[in-house]
Amino acid sequence: MHAIEDKTRTSAKDEEIARALANIPDVMWVIRERQVVYIGPNVVKMLGFTPEEIIGSKLPIMQKALQESLPDERKYDIEYRIQRKDGQWIWIQERAVSHHERGGIRYTYGLLSDITQRKMKDDSSRAAMEDEFRSTKEQLEYAVFSNPAVIYIGKPLPDQSDFIGIYISKSIKSVVGFEAEQLIGESGSKFWKSRVPPEDFQKYQDEVPALWRDGQHAFEYRFLHKDGKYRWIREEERIIRDEHNQVRDVVGYWIDVTDRRLSEEKFRELFEACPISLWEEDFSSVKEYFNELRLKGISRFKKYFTDHPDDVIKCASMVKILNVNEATLKLYNAKGIQEIVDGLQHIITKQSINTFRDELIALAEGNIQFSNKIENKTLNGETIHVNVLCRVVPGYEGTLAKILVCIVDLTPEKKLRETLLRSQRLAAIGETATMVGHDLRNPLQGISGAAYNIRKHLGTAADPSVTDMLGVIDKGVQYANRIVNDLHDFSRESQIHLLPTTTKSIVRQAFTHAKVPNNIRIADGILNDFEFLADESKMSRVITNLIQNAVDAMPDGGILSISSTNENGQVSIRVTDTGVGIPRDHLVKIWNTLFTTKSKGMGLGLPICKRFIEAHGGTISVESTPGKGSTFTATIPIKTASEVSQIE
Question: How far is CA 506 from CA 141, 195, 605, 641, in A?
Answer without folding.
Answer: 102, 83, 17, 19
